[in-house]
Amino acid sequence: MEEYLVFARNHPVLILGLVAVLGMIIWTEIGRLTRKYKQVNSAQAVQILNQEDSVVLDVREDNELRGGKIKGARHIPLGQLKNRLGELEQSKGKPVLVYCRSGNRSSYACQLMTKAGFQDVNNLAGGIMAWESANLPVSKR
């Protein structure tokens, strides 16, 4: 045990780095465990889409739509979502699938939606890139 204390005294920067990394891991895990939306893969997303009243929300920017979108998806850029949540008010009790390019921006959109009272919110992990890599169809219009 004394060797560890000697090491810590001789290498304080390494110990601070270790504490910082452990803190970030703990913070990430607490966030993952307390989030109110689900992360879903492409296969689970297809199951959500097959439900009768499901809503699909694309939060990418306008210039990202050239490559296509999931058929039937409603497009509201993430920057406008907070102000336009009223447009989705009737969908609060329905399953909602949210996606972006890679799944990062859509996770923030999912947080906004759960805070606004949406109950069944799902984030497409990997976004449209994961959807396309699973060879699932995209609509060009």
From TrEMBL:
InterPro entries: GlpE_sulfurtransferase, Rhodanese-like_dom, Rhodanese-like_dom_sf. PROSITE patterns: RHODANESE_3. SUPFAM superfamilies: Rhodanese/Cell cycle control phosphatase (SSF52821). Pfam families: Rhodanese (PF00581). Gene3D superfamilies: Rhodanese-like domain. The chain crosses the membrane at residues 12-30. Keywords: Membrane, Transmembrane, Transmembrane helix. Residues 50-140 form the Rhodanese domain. This is Rhodanese-like domain-containing protein.
